[in-house]
Amino acid sequence: MKNSMLNCEGAIRVNTAPKPIAPGTRCEVSFELPVGGKMRPVTAAVKVLYCSFSGPDGFKVGTAFGDLDEECRDAVNGFAL
Hints:
It is built from one helix and five strands. The chain is globular and about 35 Å long. A five-stranded antiparallel beta sheet has the order 1-2-5-4-3. Strand 1 and strand 2 form a beta hairpin. The model has no long low-confidence stretch (mean pLDDT 81). It is mainly beta. Helix content is 14%, strand content 57%.
């Protein structure tokens, strides 16, 4: 999946995925965020909320974060807020 966008509501939207992922699917995502001039790694459990076909690039996938550990939560909040 690529082109991720975070918001401070505890959700992430992945603009494109190569194949559909069923709503309700639980998975883990890993990515890096620029926070305070450094790249911070984040690994998070997510639940797929929706998946819709978006053309030749694949599928739009919306997810919600599960519980984040303190370090990951700080990185997400530092980026999103």
